[in-house]
Specification:
- By secondary structure, the protein is of the alpha+beta class.
- It has 9 helices and 12 strands.
- Strands 1, 2, 3, 4, 5, 6, 7, 8, 9, 10, 11 and 12 form a 12-stranded antiparallel sheet that branches.
- Helix 1 crosses helix 3 and helix 4 packs antiparallel against helix 8.
């Protein structure tokens, strides 16, 4: 269309002859250097018998047809402009309406149960899903952790993960154990409503629970529980919570039935290294991880969610193809800092397998120290697809 427009435009203004000597010789002297300005009527010499004159006539006929077609198109477009504009406006309004319905709004954060339960809604983002467009265990661990941290900020102030009375004595909360049980992984674009609360357990520990629900279907997609201890950041040892903090916790905690049930017991996890020493055991090839600065959290050690990613990287693809990860139980045993070299290994715990489910024992050990310190011990439970 652009070439036609330029051609018709030039023909409507003027036609210039610059190099046709044979045409010039066949024309009267008064027309040897014509300007050839005209509307749509061909010049009077169009009937000349010279070859150049015939070419000139054909060219002008062609340009005239182009101009005519262009004018017809313009007329049709003009007649249709009003109707097209109205139709376009209706389409845009309908599209905007559909877009609004597909991306609903939601209340992101709130306190319920008289301020004892914190609720936050998380949309599952593009970078949180895999090739199947579903979230994974790492994603569920991250949104649970984020909800817990925002709960702390809601209680103790922005950028504060603990009460002021604990900060004054260099105390912090440290997670020692986490159990995630996922029934159904949300897909990209889903919204997961995460509720969390804690219950004090004396002056040295606390339990935190989570309830995860699909915002649209209101169906529970997972649950989790965890154990925390008060940790002295200077001595790097467990400490006692200040009395004032304990009193505040009595007003902030929610003493509801544990999310895992009243009969829930903390099981001792097997050591993958012991299983690997058994003849005929099935263990993965060790996977080595180098601790990066981006793996560290505010306390200067590796973020708990990074450990989850490291240990799951050691799971052979054959298990992932045949089974789906349903549960993760992880114990945090030692700190890991920048520069540490970590080895991840997993072994099938055949003594624990039940029905079509497979139990894997995991361990993360420091290869950068002589003691081969165990950093993490974990168990994952996989269900037949």
């Amino acid at each position: 269309s652009s070439s036609l427009s330029s051609s018709s435009s030039s023909s409507s203004e003027s036609i210039k002859i610059t190099s046709s000597s044979s045409l010039s010789s066949s024309l009267p002297s008064s027309l040897e250097k014509p300007s050839c300005s005209f509307s749509l009527s061909p010049p009077s010499f169009a009937s000349s018998s010279s070859p150049s004159s015939s070419s000139f006539t054909m060219t002008n006929n062609k340009n005239r047809n182009v101009i005519r077609r262009r004018n017809e198109r313009t007329k049709r477009k003009t007649n249709a402009t009003g109707a097209a504009a109205a139709a376009s406006a209706v389409e845009e309004e309908e599209e905007a309406k559909n877009t609004t319905e597909q991306v609903p709004t939601w209340a992101a954060r709130e306190f319920t149960e008289e301020g004892r339960v914190f609720t936050e809604t998380f949309p599952i983002r593009f970078d949180e899903v895999g090739p199947n467009k579903l979230a994974d265990m790492g994603t569920m661990a991250r949104i649970s952790q984020e909800c817990a941290c925002n709960h702390a900020q809601g209680l103790w102030g922005r950028s504060q993960s603990m009460p002021e009375d604990m900060r004054k004595v260099d105390m912090a909360w440290v997670c020692t154990r986490l159990h995630l049980d996922i029934f159904e992984y949300p897909k990209w674009g889903d919204q997961v409503v995460v509720k969390t609360w804690f219950e004090s357990q004396g002056r040295v520990a606390a339990r935190r629970d989570w309830d995860l629900v699909n915002n649209e279907t209101e169906k529970r997609v997972g649950k989790a529980t965890s154990q925390w201890i008060a940790f002295n950041l200077k001595t790097r040892r467990m400490g006692r919570i200040p009395s004032q903090v304990v009193e505040d916790f009595q007003l902030q905690q929610w003493c509801n039935e544990p999310i895992m049930g009243s009969e829930y017991e903390v099981e001792k996890l097997p050591d993958a290294r012991d299983i690997g020493a058994i003849e005929g055991s099935q263990c993965s090839v060790p996977v080595v991880h180098y601790t990066r600065r981006s793996d560290l959290d505010m306390n200067g050690h590796v973020n708990n969610c990074i450990y989850t990613e490291w240990l799951l990287e050691s799971v052979p693809q054959s298990y992932r193809d045949e089974y789906e990860l349903k549960e993760l139980i992880i114990e945090f045993k030692a700190e890991c800092n920048f520069g540490d070299v970590i080895e991840a290994v997993c072994c099938e715990d055949t003594s624990s397998n039940v029905g079509d489910s497979v139990f894997l024992a995991h361990t993360l050990t420091k290869k950068s120290d002589e003691k081969q310190t165990e950093v993490v011990r974990a168990r994952t439970i996989w269900a037949k697809r």
